[in-house]
Write a structure and sequence with these properties.
heterodimer, A: 314 residues, mainly alpha, 2 domains, 16 helices, 76% helix, B: 474 residues, alpha+beta, Dna Ligase, domain 1, five-stranded mixed sheet, 32% helix, globular
Chain lengths: 314, 474
Amino acid sequence: MLSRTAENLYWLARYVERAEYLARTIEATLRVTALPNAYIGKTNEWDSALLTAGVSASFYKIHKEADERNVVDYLSFAPENPSSIRNCIENARLNSRSVRTALTSEMWDTINSAWIDLQEIWGKGTKTREELNKFLRFVQEISLRFDGSAYRTMLRNDAYWFSRLGLHLERADNTARILDVKYHVLLPEEEHVGGPLDYYQWTSILRSVSALTAYHWVYRETLKPWLIADLLILNESLPRSLASCYSNLARNLDQIGVAYGRQGAAQRHARGVRNRLEHSNMNDIFQHGVHEFIQEFIADNGRLGEIIAKQYLI
Amino acid sequence: MAVAFDEMNGSDGDLRPAYQELSRWLKETPPDALEYRRQEAELLFRRIGITFAVYGDSEAQERLIPFDVIPRIISGKEWSLLEKGLKQRVRAINMFLRDIYHARDILRADIIPEDLIFQNPVFRPEMNGQDVPHDVYVHIAGIDIIRTEPENFFVLEDNARTPSGVSYMLENREIMMRLFPDLFARHRVAPVEKYPDELLSALRSVAPISASAEPTVALLTPGVYNSAYYEHSFLADKLGVELVEGRDLIVKNDEVFMRTTEGLKRVDVIYRRLDDDFLDPLSFRPDSVLGVPGLMSAYAAGNITLANAVGTGIADDKAVYSYMPEIVKFYLGEEPILKNVPTWRCREPADLAYVLDHLGELVVKEVHGSGGYGMLIGPAATKATIEAFRDKLKREPEGFIAQPTLALSTCPTCTESGLAPRHVDLRPFVLTGRDRVNIIPGGLTRVALKAGSLVVNSSQGGGTKDTWILDELS
């Protein structure tokens, strides 16, 4: 297939995934900030929302302080924020138009209809909490529908695999970022200092990666930071865990390699990261330092993006 | 101006045979049911994303072309006459282009003045002596036809460069079949869905000799911001070929390749929807970022077929148009089946004098204009506009031609005050491959939605209709 087509499919999936993640982040932050101060302390949750979205620097160029109104606006609607939900959806639609021939009509319809429906919201924004919640739900549904229609209707060939690569690379980045911002509440077992404060931080993390219920099913335990880190980093059964993302990335890259009859740096790099995750345990990771581990992972993940671009997309 | 001929009710109000079923159906169908279907059609167009862009109109970057749900019906007998005439015309155009870029017999026979060709900016000296596979220059032609009387069809324009609109022919039909299945059941409408297949086999039939047995075809688009981008992606999809932009292509050793995830892949035939000027920055406009550097040298080496060929603009120039009856006679030795609209060439002093005297009743067009821009419709223009045009005309007479204001035929059309006659034209698409000329029975009917308006262009408020050719022979 055309390199440009592969590139567009890859970015299309990334934009959709990012839009969903932003919507989840805002939703989780709204929940935690609705609690009385006694439960969450004086931390500025809107500030961490900006950090997990990776747009802190650009935000503070325009705004002095982060509060609900300006952060929600910046993450959702601001045209000047290149990764606002609005820009993600606009870019997704533009990418879809450029690769219409590689999309199934169901996928195109999902993106195009959502884009049409959202034009109205771009114009007037959301006035009430209800409207905002409805909007955030809607954005999450776009990604569910998009993902679902890709899964159910696309031929299993390189077009599908490149789209999956974008999805999992973006997803791994998002999960890693949330861990990176919140690593200080994910303390090793013996240093347990948690109070009600940390408890709500933890549920907030789990909510932003839609893993709160999953946690209880997997561990059948009350929330423990140690296990939360295990779930998000190493547990392959959680679709948003780093391990799951990398098992998918390595598999999709292998499928491309087999179809093209050639392996390359991208395959080797993805396999390397996957193997490291497979052979790690939380003990080692805490020894090494969660923060350092996550930092390295984010860098590795970024590198995989560059290698894929060089090998296939340019 | 006389009352226009109405394709349903004739000139005298007698229902014409091809419209009998439709008329009966319209009587049975309540107006609000029509309105409901109209809205449904609009929704479908928007959902599918069948939009076009209007340049210089940033408010509405993507607009819908209004779709009128009342079909335009042409009888099988009328169509077979049109079909013969169109084939004849396109054969002559291809022979004319071959001649102009080689022996130039028609110039030596003094049928067309030399300077009209050689001074013409759309004449491409790069094509002199250059052979194209099977002497086909215009693989896809969109010939604009207007009608003034039951038997009177005129060619208004020969679009021989990159005619657009065929996606509307196909999509309008799809939507009509979805919305009005019972109306179809009451007619025998010739299908149009074979168009992409016919187009693909025409394109493959003209692959260069150096191509493999399974030539690779690609569709070259200027990109998502082009006004006809939807059509480009639609056609690429239906043809099953890659939709490429200039940056996807690269020329190496006079061969054209596309960049794929598996490396470079050779391309043999390019169905290009990019104008000559932008094709190759090394040969034409050096500032073009849409084109492919070196494409013309691969073309000269005979390793790539461009459809349509470079330099076909000389055949649809509006001044050359006026010679088309002579061109048909010269190459085919036949009388032209389709008429030309009488045309005054302002480059000729006697014609210019006549035109200046009669500006109030003529249509004056720029020789290189398109899309209905830069044209004067005398009877509809104010005094001031006419005077301004007079100055332009005097300054640069060779830039203009003039034609009588013809009463385009009308068809019943949905308007705010119910069904009313509106003026229409017709653009059938003519495909030419290695050994045959082929026309899918149908075309794009454009309709001027404003009462009395003669401008059918979509950029100026025109709409479209599904065009039904009745298959009466079967």
